């Protein structure tokens, strides 16, 4: 029988039979308002509120004796029951029945949501989050006797699936006398709040609990998985009790060093050692002992924290003895205040005595001098090496006073950058000083003065005469633009130089600029033999005498006549040229030239006619506009005054007669205030506008009353 005792009247216990007549009651579990029990027939669930039995779950394998393989029950929550019987597991969910389905049925029903079989017989069950803990009774065949015997019980964690399960972990338990135990001799109980599980056997009680992060880290360290252990400790640093992140990190570094992974060990130091200067210095000495200072050099802290200067000097000396490039890299990357600069400079100087031309050491020494604010020495080395940072150094530290006597070296190194720098800092190094320094290097002097002229045509005007010779010698293509743009170069000197060197184009320009256009034209015709250039020159000068000279020179040269015929039409009457052509002279492309002259003439006629039409149309439009304007009325009210007597234009008494004259310019007068005109014309004009030459402003309206 399954009896329920309830406290009744007078605080007495009153029993009631919930179930009987189906054999022994093997297991009972009560949670909330639901009671589950198992007997030989199956598992029943009763609702204590309605006093109704809501389900019967029959056992699957009736061949197993229920006393030898008892049913295991446990409630996962108030509505979920887990049943284990034989090798079968069922997870049942108690649900509310819909009102329309009730009729004579209980108001709740049970649905089996998961069902699967296991390899072994079940001795106990317990929930673990969304997984299950199963205590299994195991039988195996002995290898010696080949007889089935009892093995150690297993504690499995499985993940239920709709029709199967996935094994998460499995542990075989060593309990005393397991060889003699049966399935019914084992029980599994659990303490829900503490996540403790009790495995009960006839001779032992084994307590199982979930592993915490300390256990996990112990296992990782045992397997030498230091990186994973460090990561696990960082994630769970608030919950771990046995381990410290720093201890795990140091063990990890030692492990990497033992394996020979020096670079990785050095890189991990940054993260593990953090700002602990003592540990940093200890690790640096350890790396020195194994000859791996280079490995840790890249990862040494440079700011917050800063180690002792001796540490950094020790690393630099190591590189200086074996790796100049690595040494130079560290000097460039490390701030100069990490180490004693004087000691390192002396060490570099000592090495340069053995190898004085070593560019890497010289460059590094220059950087050290810069850190030490000995800019003059650094500049000398940079100039010797022709190093690109020399200009940056000059600008950054304002070393213009130090380069006054090194301008030639700078120009030889990079004339473009040097000139830009010198021109940008004229206040620190004057133009005169630069020109003086470059006196023996005229080609560099020309580069400087040319850039100066391009930037400002007037700043270097005292050197324009010198520049004529420099352009003629080193840069003839820019000579003519210079002569055109300069207003300070002496023309006679320029003409003399150009004539000496037979520079025809430049000579022509100078002659024309000096007013000797005829000589310039003659040079174009005789020296250049270029009729197009001669015509272009004549057009620029726009001088009738030049056109006459050009025609006279060309009259016996048929190709020149063709060029003139093609281009003269818009500047000189072509008839003047055509009349002078000798009878019988053969002129190439004469017909085409004459056709072009006629076409140009027709084009001029068309343009004139078009302009005339536009002018007439505009005049008519403006005349109509003026007429419309003059036809409009003009408002005259009390605010208007007579421009002569300055009294109101309208009388205060409207009944009196008055006579007013209003001009188109909006000036108004009393009739009697206007002066009498001496002219015979009947048209009157505004005295004010006529006096100011703004137009006559003829009268448009005479008002009388």
UniProtKB/TrEMBL annotation:
Source organism superkingdom: Eukaryota
GO terms, biological process: cellular response to starvation; endosomal vesicle fusion; macroautophagy; protein targeting to vacuole
Keyword Protein transport: yes
Name of the coding gene: Vps41
Cited InterPro entries: Beta-prop_Vps41 (IPR057780), Clathrin_H-chain/VPS_repeat (IPR000547), TPR-like_helical_dom_sf (IPR011990), Vps41 (IPR016902), Vps41/Vps8 (IPR045111), Znf_RING (IPR001841), Znf_RING_Vps41 (IPR057779)
RING-type domain residues: 642-690
Location, primary (coarse class): cytoplasm
Repeat as UniProt keyword: no
GO cellular component annotations of the record: clathrin-coated vesicle; Golgi apparatus; HOPS complex; late endosome
UniProt keyword annotations, A-Z: Metal-binding, Protein transport, Transport, Zinc, Zinc-finger
Sequence similarity: Belongs to the VPS41 family.
Protein name: Vacuolar protein sorting-associated protein 41 homolog
Organism: Atrichornis clamosus
Subcellular location: Cytoplasmic vesicle, Clathrin-coated vesicle; Late endosome
Gene Ontology MF annotations: zinc ion binding
CHCR-type repeats, residues: 419-563
């Amino acid at each position: 029988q399954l009896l329920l005792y309830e406290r009744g009247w007078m605080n007495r216990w009153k029993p009631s039979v919930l179930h009987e007549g189906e054999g022994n009651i093997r297991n009972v579990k009560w949670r909330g308002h639901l009671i589950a029990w198992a007997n030989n027939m199956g598992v029943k669930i009763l609702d204590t509120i309605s006093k109704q039995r809501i389900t019967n779950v029959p056992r699957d394998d009736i061949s197993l004796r229920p006393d030898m393989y008892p049913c295991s029950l446990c409630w996962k929550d108030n509505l979920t029951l887990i049943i284990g019987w034989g090798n079968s597991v069922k997870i049942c969910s108690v649900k509310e029945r819909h009102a329309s389905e009730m009729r004579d049925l209980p108001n709740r029903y049970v649905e089996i949501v998961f069902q699967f079989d296991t390899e072994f017989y079940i001795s106990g069950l317990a929930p673990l989050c969304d997984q299950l803990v199963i205590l299994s009774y195991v039988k195996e065949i002995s290898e010696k006797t080949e007889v089935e015997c009892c093995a150690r019980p297993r504690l499995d964690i499985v993940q239920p699936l709709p029709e199967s399960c996935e094994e998460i972990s499995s542990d075989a338990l060593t309990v005393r006398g397991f060889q003699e135990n049966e399935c019914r001799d084992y029980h599994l109980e659990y303490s829900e709040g503490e996540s403790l599980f009790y495995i009960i056997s006839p001779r032992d009680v084994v307590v199982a609990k979930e592993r915490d992060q300390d256990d996990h880290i112990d296992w990782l360290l045992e397997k030498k998985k230091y990186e994973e252990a460090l990561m696990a400790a960082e994630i769970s640093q608030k919950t771990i009790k046995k381990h410290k992140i720093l201890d795990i990190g140091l063990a990890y570094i030692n492990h990497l060093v033992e394996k020979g992974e020096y670079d990785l060990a050095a890189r991990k130091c940054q993260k593990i050692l953090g700002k602990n200067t003592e540990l940093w210095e200890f690790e640096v000495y350890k790396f020195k002992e194994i000859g791996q200072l280079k490995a840790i050099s890249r990862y040494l802290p440079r700011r917050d924290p800063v180690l002792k200067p001796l540490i950094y000097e020790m690393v630099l000396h190591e590189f200086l003895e074996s790796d100049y490039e690595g040494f130079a890299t560290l000097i460039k990357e490390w701030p100069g205040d990490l180490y004693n600069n004087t000691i390192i400079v002396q060490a570099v100087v000592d090495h340069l005595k053995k190898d004085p031309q070593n560019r890497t050491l010289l460059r590094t020494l220059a950087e050290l001098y810069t850190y030490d604010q000995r800019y003059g020495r650094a500049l000398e080395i940079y100039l010797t090496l022709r190093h690109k940072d020399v200009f940056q150094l000059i600008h950054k530290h304002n070393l213009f006073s130090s380069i006054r006597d090194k301008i030639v070296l700078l120009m030889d190194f990079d004339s473009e950058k040097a000139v830009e720098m010198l021109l940008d800092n004229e206040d620190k190094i004057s133009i005169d000083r630069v020109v003086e320094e470059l006196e023996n290097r005229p080609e560099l002097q020309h580069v400087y003065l040319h850039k100066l002229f391009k930037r400002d045509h007037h700043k270097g005007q005292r050197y324009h005469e010198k520049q004529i010779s420099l352009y003629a010698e080193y840069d003839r293509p820019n000579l003519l633009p210079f002569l055109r743009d300069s207003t300070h170069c002496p023309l006679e000197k320029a003409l003399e130089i150009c004539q000496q060197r037979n520079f025809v184009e430049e000579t022509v320009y100078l002659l024309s600029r000096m007013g000797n256009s005829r000589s310039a034209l003659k040079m174009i015709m005789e020296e250049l033999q270029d009729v197009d250039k001669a015509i272009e020159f004549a057009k620029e000068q726009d001088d009738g005498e030049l056109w006459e000279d050009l025609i006279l020179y060309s009259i016996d040269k048929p190709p020149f006549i063709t060029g003139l015929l093609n281009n003269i039409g818009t500047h000189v009457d072509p008839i003047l040229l055509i009349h002078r052509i000798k009878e019988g002279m053969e002129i190439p492309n004469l017909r085409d030239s004459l056709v072009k002259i006629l076409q140009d003439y027709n084009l001029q006629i068309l343009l004139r006619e078009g302009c005339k039409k536009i002018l007439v149309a505009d005049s008519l439009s403006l005349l109509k506009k003026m007429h419309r304007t003059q036809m409009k009325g003009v408002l005259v009210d009390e605010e208007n005054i007579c421009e002569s007597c300055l009294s109101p234009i309208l009388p205060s008494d409207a009944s009196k007669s008055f006579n007013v004259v209003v001009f188109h310019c909006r000036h108004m007068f009393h009739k009697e205030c206007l002066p009498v005109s001496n002219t015979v014309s009947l048209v009157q004009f505004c005295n004010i506008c006529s006096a100011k030459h703004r137009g006559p402003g003829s009268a448009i309206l005479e008002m009388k009353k």
